Amino acid sequence: MMMFQFKQIFLFILMIKLSTTEDHFPRVLTKTYNQTWNLSSTAILTCHVRNLGEHHVTWFKFDPLTSSSYPLAVGKELFTTDKRFSISSYSTSTKDSHWTLEIYQLNPFDEGTYLCKIANRRASVSVAIHLHIQIPMILFPSYLYVEPGTNVKLNCSIFIDNLNNESLLSNLNWHFVSNQFNKTKPDDVHIRKKLLNNGLTSSLMIHHAQPYHSGIWTCVYKRQRRTTKLVVEKDASKRQRISALLSNNSNRRFASIHALFLFHIFFLDYCNKLFFV
């Protein structure tokens, strides 16, 4: 009888202790959110924590290929050898602290889901931050008016410092919304992709364009979109001259942006070698 009462008292004390421990376990006040940063910029991912105490904030990156996460940092100690990553923190009160994961010189492979997590054997709290990388993207011409039977060519270009990953190439696609009520699927459409320096150009070609090719043609790279309005109709000579002017302006703008981007990549590479080697 005494042994039974002792066990009940022990279990009661243990439940109180566990309850007290859970009440004082750290909380992550940051909610799941999306962040979009430009290529080669610096991403700043922040996690607001309350009652951290003796626990540690751990940063993970989720790998969709293996459906698992690998650690980047525990506390202020980095687990990655990549010098582009850094950890910092500051407190706004005795209970609240803010932990920041910074990623310099962003590249397309940095895109993904990052986890800010606090855990021990009894409890775990975390928040997911979805990082998206936006890259320079151009589609020209943006407007095009042609006579039926004309050959049409649309060029969509993206600029990435590293194009060795085939998944990046396969993510550049075309979509079409027809002006026709019957939404006839266009034929005689061919797509070619070409690598040039640090850019990938996808050319959409329509042989002998017909009115059912008229509509909105959209070039899509992940979450980014660029559109062209194509109108195929008779007596389009006036509109064609306007389209030619727009196309020439687009070509000049494309060449200028391409040259500026190449200089930008060269400058960032120089800075990277200067400061991170």
What are the SSEs and their pairings?
Layout lengths: L1 H22 L3 E2 L4 E6 L4 E8 L7 E6 L4 E7 L2 E2 L6 E7 L4 E8 L8 E8 L4 E11 L2 E4 L2 E4 L5 E8 L6 H5 L1 E7 L10 E8 L2 E8 L8 E7 L2 E9 L4 H40 L1
Parallel strand pairs: 2-10, 12-18
Antiparallel strand pairs: 1-3, 3-8, 4-5, 4-9, 5-6, 7-8, 9-10, 11-13, 13-16, 14-17, 15-16, 17-18
Q: Judging from the principal axes of the Cα atoms, what is the shape?
A: elongated
Structural class: alpha+beta
| Average pLDDT over all residues | 80
Low-confidence stretches: 9-22
Strand content: 35-45%
Notable features of this structure?
single chain, 277 residues, alpha+beta, six-stranded mixed sheet, four-stranded antiparallel sheet, 3 helices, 18 strands
Q: What does this protein structure show overall?
A:
This protein is of the alpha+beta class. It contains three helices and 18 strands. β17 and β18 form a beta hairpin. The longest helix is centred in the last third of the chain and has 40 residues. The protein starts with a helix and ends with a helix. About 5% of the residues have low confidence.
What's the quick description here?
The chain has 277 residues and is α+β, with helices and mostly antiparallel strands. It is 24% helix and 43% strand. The strands form four sheets. It has a six-stranded mixed beta sheet, with no helix packed on it. A four-stranded antiparallel beta sheet has the order 1-3-8-7, with no helix packed on it. The chain has a four-stranded antiparallel beta sheet with strand order 11-13-16-15, with helices on one face.
